[in-house]
Structures are given as C-alpha cells and as structure tokens.
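Example 3.2
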Amino acid sequence: MPDTAAVFDLEGDAGALGALRIDLAAAFRLTARFGWHESVGNHFTASISRDGRRFLMNPRWRHFGEIRASDLQVLDADDPDVMLRSDAPDRSGWTIHGAVHRTHPHIRVLLHCHPPHATALACLKDPSLPPVDQNTARFYGCLGVDLGFGGIANDTEEGERLAVAFGDHRVLIMGNHGVSVAAPTVAEAFEDLYFLERSAQIYLLALSSGQPLSVMSDALARKTADGWLYYRAQAFEHFEHLKRQLDQLDPSYRD
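Structure, written as tokens:
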C-alpha cells in the first residue's frame, strides 16, 4: 500500500472529521444488518492524525446496530493508560488496533469482524483463498494468512504479532479467528469486506460440491486482479447507496 498518511491529518478539520465519524458509524450499522457482527464484540477504527496513532474506535461492548457517530472514542495508540479509564475500550480491540495503527501509519481504516463465511474459511487448515472466480481473484496478491493464533488478543504480544502478520497486505485472514481489512477510507475498506465475505461464500460452496476446483493460472489471476483496479472507485458509489438505505431505515447513526 502507498503511504497516504500525509493527506489524512483530520484533527484540525471538523468537517472532514465529522464525515469520517458518520462513515464509520454507517459501517457498524451495515455490518450488523448484514449479520457480520459478533454479539457486542469486534472493532472498527479510523486514524485521524498524520502519524496514524490517534484513531476513532467503538466504545466497549456497544452493539454495532446502535452505534452513532458521536459515540466513537478518540484513542491514542501510545497511551496504554487508556485502559485505566472508567470508559476504557475493550482490551482486545485496543490491543489489536492500537498495535496495527502504531506499526502501520498508512492503514487509515481497519475493520475487524467475524463474518460467517470468511470466518469459516479461517477455520480451514489451509485458509488461503484461491482465485476460482472474479471475486476471489480480486484479492490475488494482497491477501495475507496468519496461522499463529494465540488466543483472544488481550495481551501486548498478540497485538504486536498480528501487526507484524498484517505486513503490507490489504486483507488478513486470521486463522481460527476472523478477518481484518485495511484501506485508506471507510468506503474502500467496507467494499473489500463485502467482497471478501462473498468470495469466501463462493469458495466454500465450490468446495462443498466435491468436484475439482478450476483455479486460475497465476497470469490469469493477476490479470483479473489488475482489472479490478479500474473498479475500485465503485466502492464509494456502493457505500453511498448503502448509507441512503440506512437514512431511510434509521438515520440515527449520523447523530
């Protein structure tokens, strides 16, 4: 990923910060509506400082379906004393997202959740995602696989390990755990999460047939992945459409 941190210093721009809060709140609500959430767990974050260390995150144990823009906490990845506050964030969210934002300032938005098909993929002995169709090929060359699951990420070591595992990938399949998606914007991250869950569903359905898979050659997979680059901007149109749906159903996410 290119280092885009220099253009994302939002703390002095109330309008841009407000828009980011609304987009992130929308991502929470949509994730709940799509059934990708996990009770009152999982976490989404978005950096607001140039160095990526100050970021927005959902408050501890607030259901995705209720989150509003004003609910999002501003946290500092260099301030471990945040866990001593009465409104301390969830420990596993702080551990993972704090470590990733400290280590990778170019990751402006990080969505971590447990969608059913993508998490089922993460349960396989080999949780990689071979290019068997256009959607799966979208992630060719940008998807990482972590097989070092160390339990619920409540300690610093596990957070730092996951930050290293992310590397320069856009998507990380977290073995025995779930998935994380990184992008410069909420819309782009949500679009990758959407297509990742679709891709996992397609792949698992193909596996369930018991028939041999038709896996693309490396050359064809690369050509298809490169072809997706032309359509990356569609993420914004799709996300705006989804927000319009939310506005009709329950616009309180904007509050």
